[in-house]
Amino acid sequence: MAIENPFLDPLRFERQAPECAIVIFGANGDLTRRKLMPALYRLAYDRRLSAGFAVIGISRTPLSDDQFRDKMLESVKQFSEDTAVDTDVWAAFARGLYYVAGDIGDAALYQRLGQKLMAAESQRHTGGNALFYLSTQPSQYAQAALGIGAAGLGKGTGWRRLVVEKPFGHDLASARDLSRRLHEVFSESDVYRIDHYLGKETVQNILAFRFGNGIFEPLWNRRYVNHVQITGAESIGVEGRGAYYQEAGALADMIQNHLLQVMATIAMEPAASFRAASVRDEKSKLLRSMRAMTPDEVRRNSVAGQYGPARVGGQAIAGFRQEPGVDPQSPTDTYAAVTLFVENWRWAGVPFYVRTGKRLPKRVTEIAIQFNPAPLAIFDQDGGENAPNLLIVRIQPEEGISLKFLSKRPGAGMTLRPVSMDFNYGSSFGERSPSAYETLLLDAIVGDATLYTRQDMVEASWSVVEPIQNVWRETRFDFPNYAAGTWGPAAADEMLARRGHAWRKP
Amino acid sequence: MAASAPERVLRELADLWVTLGKRGQAEGGAGVLRACTLTLVVLAEANDDATALGETIAALMPEHPARTIVVKLSGAGERALAERVYAQCWMPFGERRQICCEQIEITVSDAALADLPSVVLPLAAPDLPVIVWSRSARLFEMPPFGAIARMAAKVVVDSAGFADPKRALRLLAETARSGVLLGDLAWTRLTRWREMLARLFENRDYLAKLARISSVRVVYNGEFATAAWYMGAWIVDALRDAGVNAKIVVGAGRGPAPISVELAGGEFRVALARREDRLVITVDNAENCANLPQPSDYLLMREELGIVRRDAVFERTLASAARLAYATN
After folding, report:
1. What pLDDT shows up at residue B2?
2. Nearest CA-CA distance, residue A162 and chain B, Å
3. How far apart are CA B275 and CA B269, in angstroms?
4. Is the pLDDT of residue B88 over 90?
5. Which of A309-313, B59-63, B240-244 has the highest mean predicted lDDT (pLDDT)?
6. Rounded to whole angstroms, how far apart are CA atoms A269 and A266?
7. What confidence tier does B199 reach under pLDDT thresholds 50, 70, 90?
8. Do A3 and B238 touch (CB under 8 A)?
9. How far is CA B255 from its chain centroid?
10. Contacts of A224 (CB under 8 A, 6+ apart)
């Protein structure tokens, strides 16, 4: 019988990563430099990583281990937002960084990787555990996984896991095909599809808020909730990613993954426990309860948009079609708004309005739950007394929760005014929150998949989005249809107005 | 004797919030946020460093926003009880809106200590746990302490400051047995040490050698006696859980390290010792250093305030340490 470590004290000890090697495909890419390496360094700084820890970077550029270490040090210095580089901590961390140059399509790369993994195991005592992180072009995901498998690296003396960045396919068929090919090497339980939105503290806090408190859940249904608005707005344009973005579009880039996952978190049934399988089962069930729309319903319940040129804050902003790398006739959506319905007893008939867009007035991601008005209005009908009760969950930039309700204005007379009760996550707890990548990387290393997306969840999301994509593909939109710096096309306002609702201006 | 009126103190607190709110708005800000997750009652001797204590409390507030009641023990003399209210505010992360926590300061003489619970209880934030942090070693042995402990969800002490460490452990164990939820900063100081030792045995090779351990030796200096007994008791209990019976020796030493720990048996030897701000871990002859600054009161209390529930490992270790201390000459 295996002996267990008798010294563990989970109540007091911080969660720590077991010994392992992380293999990053795309080690010279933006994601590695901006997010992954700063997150790993921060974990090391916080003593969360085991001494038996190694990172093996893979990319085409020829680099020595030392050159790779220097490059990563620069990245950590440049992109660690709240962590100064400690020379001693970096020196210990850098000793575990290795590099292998090669092409993902070249079988010889995987032989060299195998040797490096063995070297890391003997030098760093990684225990034979390996986490493969695909931070490459999506078209290379399957190729990399199959290369790992062909070289016999998908199995070893320890565990082997695969982390895949979004997008997970570009439609339902390609998502299924990608999963099928990944499963040739890794079982589904070892595939971690990362959605960094789910690693954000406030998204996790939704679960705490809903299922840790007894007072909200009784209101969380069609009887009390009038409608829900989910907004993922960005003030920036495509920022040099024009070529990628015009292939994806707002619907596939944001709604299919991030915002539908957020919606699943807000609308799911209570899980039996906080175990990965239990939470993901409920999210999956919710996503599968969402109605896939007919073409007529798509035309009534969705709006595509694309931003045109405008002057914002005294600056001339180019339209999407004028962005570098973008086709001047591009039909790509930079804005998408959809009305979705969940067909279950809790939510039947409650519209979920989901919108996202580039070049909107501000960067904000939030969920607004609007409750039904009081059944009888006994106060005078002037002033703000008709303002609905709103529960707003802000995911970024200022994470927090606000409850809006009516209060009597001080003084004579019975005049009501809306007031806001705010819980600001950052200021109520002045502690530094770990970045989404710190949370998710540590989860993957310890084998906790709760915040990762499962195959059935991805397929259910595509089942909702694909019918919309199909109709949009056949529609000739009169783009651009909103000016940069505005809240999107007028048609999106009309979509809500048909049900007597209006978008919030966050 | 000055009588304390909780209603008056609470009214002053309410006025304080109105003033802060008006001031915040007048300065063009968005007003103040009030945050509270517990009531922290700090019992401190009059000669305790008020500035350092104030800084510790201020540092704790962002993660554990609390209504803080600082009780200054003025010692012998006339029966006296007096209080004042003020607020502690900060601007988190450069935001415009400031966040404030309220503080109440009470001065009490030994003769009036028995009245303290009746003053503190009405001042506690409603429906939130009361945590008592007693920085006074002598108070622990005074009769009114029992009533003070009973009003708290948790009592935190520091046995390192107790004059008689063996007696301290026995009293703490008795208090814990009576149902009081206890925390001891002497134990909290060991968390990172224990963590490093535990992490070492995450390595399968070392874990396989656990059964070889036949002796545990803990050497301490100065005020670290209770910590040494805690450490020894915890190691021996954990080894016993794994079916390993090791001989334990805890003794005073003369070296520079406040505590050093050695687990040995056959060819296998694990040693932990502090060297300035580093924890040096030696396994057989291989030495490894980990960054381990001396934990401040802030870090220790931050950990204790995060655990307002039964801590089974501590409770078992406390009972074992008390037995061990009396079995050790």
Report:
1. 43
2. 23
3. 19
4. no
5. B240-244
6. 9
7. confident
8. no
9. 26
10. A371, A372
DSSP assignment of A124-188: H--TT-EEEEE-S-GGGHHHHHHHHHHTTTTS-SS-EEEEEPSP--SSHHHHHHHHHHHTTTS-G
Cis peptide before A397 (omega within 30 of 0): yes
A258 is a catalytic site residue: yes
pLDDT at site B268: 92
Q: Which of B187, B202, B207, B326 is nearest to B268 (CA)?
A: B207
The answer to whether the beta carbons of residues B291 and B276 sit under 8 Å apart is no
Kindly tell me the burial class for residue A322, based on how many C-beta atoms sit within 10 Å of its own C-beta (0-12, 13-18, 19 or more): middle
Upstream peptide bond of B258 is cis (omega within 30 degrees of 0) = no
Distance CA A182, CA A188 (A): 8
- Could you tell me which residues of chain A have a Cβ less than 8 Å from any Cβ in chain B? 3-9, 11-14, 16, 18-19, 47, 50-52, 86, 88-89, 125, 127, 398, 422, 424, 426-431
Tokens representing residue B266 in the block: 């056959």
pLDDT tens for each residue of A204-256: 888 888 998 888 889 999 999 999 999 999 988 887 777 778 888 999 989 99
Q: Which two tokens stand for residue B293?
A: 């600054």
* Residues A329 and A476: beta-carbon distance below 8 Å: no
The CA-atom distances, in angstroms, between A208 and each of A216, A218, B41 are 11, 15, 28
Residues of A in contact with B96 (CB under 8 A): none
A9-45 b/e (C-beta count within 10 Å ≥ 16 → b): beebbeebbbbbbbbbbbbbbebbbebbbbbbbbbbb
Average pLDDT in the A349-374 region? Answer: 93
C-alpha to C-alpha distance for A307 and A361, rounded to whole angstroms:
12
User: Is A89:B291 a contact under the CB 8 Å cutoff?
Assistant: yes
Q: Does B207 contact A5 at a Cβ distance shorter than 8 Å?
A: yes
Q: Which residue has the higher pLDDT, B22 or B28?
A: B22
Q: Give chain A's length.
A: 506
pLDDT value, residue B7: 67
Q: What is the pTM of this model?
A: 0.77
User: Which of B275, B301, B270 is closest to B189 using CA atoms?
Assistant: B301
Per-residue pLDDT tens over the stretch A45-91: 887 888 788 999 999 999 999 999 999 999 999 988 777 788 878 88
Rounded-to-integer distance, Cα A315 and Cα A319, Å = 13
Q: Crossing angle, helix A172-182 and helix A141-150, to 10 degrees?
A: 20
Q: How many whole angstroms separate alpha carbon B75 and alpha carbon B82?
A: 14
This complex has an ipTM of 0.82
Residue B3: per-residue pLDDT: 46
Query: Cα dist. A81→A34, A200, B156 in Å?
Result: 10, 16, 35
